[in-house]
């Protein structure tokens, strides 16, 4: 299976519409890949909080339309990263879109863990509530976004739901790049899955981005890693290695569930 992670550089002087056209062209160039992955909130920049409201769009808005056509033109499964989605009832969500090679929407995932503590995304956007997996011909994707990477419970739940390849679009800051790499490897090792983590390059609202998109195998080995600038990271991997790894080292079978706090005497 061939995956291409497009590590987009967000230029603050570029309009959102111009960026959509540029990214759609990049997706079309990946014809021949099985899966293409884009980063988190690439239309606005993940730290451009003041633009979330003004640039928010309905689920089936202009980014949806542009990415659906790009997926169809390239004949690829496309994880189109995430957009600031405005629900018809008013709330904003950080929502990922996945399209089939025919351009149909296969799944939408609203980010569960919002970053910012008492500011930024954490107060501007509502939290999603649903686990989302997507069945591809050769593997089942489990969807997560950026800050979700710090919460192992989410990923274990995705594995319980059948996920074999975890896809994580992000707008991860450079100052915490070491965490990005370490956490991607940890999620792969503990769940015995592939991890495809696609970040952004450039600077978002004066926050330098980490770049370094990464593909990790079920043993935690890094199959490919991007640099700091805009780049298309393409890697071939065998989804069958998930089952093989779990057979060779069946750690998931030794999970102990329902652990409770002992009574103190």
From TrEMBL:
PROSITE patterns: CN_HYDROLASE (PS50263), UPF0012 (PS01227)
KW Cell membrane (keyword) present: no
Organism per entry: Streptomyces cellulosae
One Gene Ontology term of the molecular function aspect: hydrolase activity
CDD domains documented for this protein: nitrilase_5
Family note: Belongs to the carbon-nitrogen hydrolase superfamily. NIT1/NIT2 family.
Domain CN hydrolase: 1-239
Keywords from the UniProt entry: Hydrolase
UniProt KW Hydrolase keyword: yes
InterPro entries tied to this protein: C-N_Hydrolase, C-N_Hydrolase_sf, UPF0012_CS
This protein's name: Carbon-nitrogen family hydrolase
């Amino acid at each position: 299976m061939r995956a291409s992670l497009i590590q987009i550089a967000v230029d603050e002087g570029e309009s959102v519409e111009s960026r959509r056209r540029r990214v759609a062209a990049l997706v079309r160039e990946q014809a021949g890949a099985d899966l293409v992955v884009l980063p988190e909130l690439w239309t606005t920049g993940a730290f451009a909080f003041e633009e979330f409201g003004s640039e928010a769009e309905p689920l089936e808005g202009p980014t949806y339309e542009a990415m659906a056509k790009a997926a169809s033109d390239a004949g690829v499964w496309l994880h189109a990263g995430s957009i600031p989605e405005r629900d018809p009832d008013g709330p904003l969500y950080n929502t990922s879109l996945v399209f089939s090679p025919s351009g149909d929407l296969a799944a939408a995932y609203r980010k569960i863990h919002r970053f910012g503590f008492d500011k930024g995304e954490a107060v501007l956007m509502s939290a999603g509530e649903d686990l989302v997996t997507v069945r591809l011909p050769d593997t089942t994707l489990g969807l997560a976004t950026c800050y979700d990477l710090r919460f192992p419970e989410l990923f274990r739940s995705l594995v319980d739901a059948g996920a074999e390849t975890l896809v994580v679009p992000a707008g991860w800051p450079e100052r915490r790049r070491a965490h990005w790499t370490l956490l991607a490897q940890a999620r792969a090792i503990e769940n015995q899955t592939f991890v495809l983590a696609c970040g952004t390059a450039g600077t978002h609202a004066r926050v330098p981005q980490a770049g370094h998109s990464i593909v990790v195998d079920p043993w935690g080995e890094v199959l490919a890693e991007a640099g700091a600038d805009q780049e298309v990271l393409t890697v071939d991997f065998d989804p069958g290695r998930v089952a093989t790894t779990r057979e060779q080292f069946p750690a998931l079978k030794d999970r102990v569930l329902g652990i409770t706090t002992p009574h103190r005497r």
